[in-house]
Amino acid sequence: MEQTVVLITGCSSGIGLSLAVRLASDPAKMYKVYATMRNLAKKERLLDCVKGLHKDTLDILQLDITDQGQILEVNLLGTISTIQAFLPGMKAQGHGRILVTGSIGGLKGLPFNEVYCASKFAVEGACESLAILLQHFNIHVSLIECGPVNTDFLDNPQRAEPGDCSLQQVDAHTRSLYDTYLQHCGMVFQNAAQDTEDIVKVFLDAIQSSNPAFRYYTNNALLPLSSPKISALDGSQYIRTMSKIIFSTNGKEEQK
Ligand SMILES: NC(=O)c1ccc[n+]([C@@H]2O[C@H](COP(=O)([O-])OP(=O)(O)OC[C@H]3O[C@@H](n4cnc5c(N)ncnc54)[C@H](OP(=O)(O)O)[C@@H]3O)[C@@H](O)[C@H]2O)c1
Q: How many domains does the chain have?
């Protein structure tokens, strides 16, 4: 059987790493994986994980999806430019699959994550726009919408931390809300975070489906949060509900 060629970005860690390992180690060798990372000095982790099983199924290549390191550039412009690089080839061969890692933060606003959410909301718009056009070329776009996943993601230095000068300069009330938010995140990760293997299963569903959906949700536990958004289209119910969930500690409303 002809191998399916798969290009994966961000394979030095996290979801990209796990997906590359799973596909490159496929017992039936169904996939030829081009695992890319911006820093090839990190490739040992991937090579260790595939443990020599990668002959004919794995090539590791250097790819920085953007020359600018900011969240908006990496998540949005990097995603679009990577897709655009492969569209002419996919159109010419008459088929293709594009799978993008989406986020709960691309479907709902989250406090202290303005830039991240803006980037992921924008990815939703970009993918939806592309999907409408690309179906005419037999190219399917799917978003794999993740809730919390246990990866290096939270250690990313671009994310705000209490010690950051940006947070040191803010008022005491904002800092205290940030501390409550961090406690909430800790609880959510403890109770609901998935492992990268769970995410890889959803990627495989999408890859192997003959008629892939546009959105796949990896974590059903987070779906109830969608109802305030859908039931009250003016958006205010979602904002009140999220504020209550995040900033009420032990069920008590925050005291100003
Ligand atoms: N973990 C979560 O809770 C969660 C939840 C929802 C959505 N997601 C999404 O899942 C995706 C993967 O994140 P992860 O959780 O697997 O985090 P991760 O372990 O931090 O992996 C991120 C990967 O992206 C790479 N990367 C960063 N900037 C890049 C650039 N300019 N060019 C190429 N590669 C670059 C990193 O490479 P370096 O090692 O070189 O930095 C790393 O391999 C992201 O889109 C994230 O938004 C994650």
A: 2
Q: Which amino acid residue places its CA nearest to atom 38 of ligand 1? A: 12
Q: Which domain-ending residue is among 64, 79, 107?
A: 64
SS3 251: coil
Contacts of 30 (CB under 8 A, 6+ apart): 1, 3, 4, 23
Residue where a domain stops, chosen among 64, 79, 94: 64
With the most atoms of ligand 1 within 8 angstroms of its CB, the residue from 151, 154, 155, 158 to mutate is: 151
So which residues are the catalytic ones? 116
What is the best residue among 8, 101, 197, 216 to mutate for testing ligand 1's pocket, by most ligand atoms within 8 Å of CB?
A: 101
107 and 76 belong to one structural domain? yes
Tell me what pLDDT residue 254 has.
52
The whole-angstrom separation of Cα 81 and Cα 86 is 9
Which ligand 1 atom is at minimum distance from the Cα of 150?
1
256 lies in a domain?
A: no
Question: Domain range for residue 29?
Answer: 1-64
Mean of per-residue pLDDT scores for the chain:
90
pLDDT tens digits for 98-107? 999 999 999 9
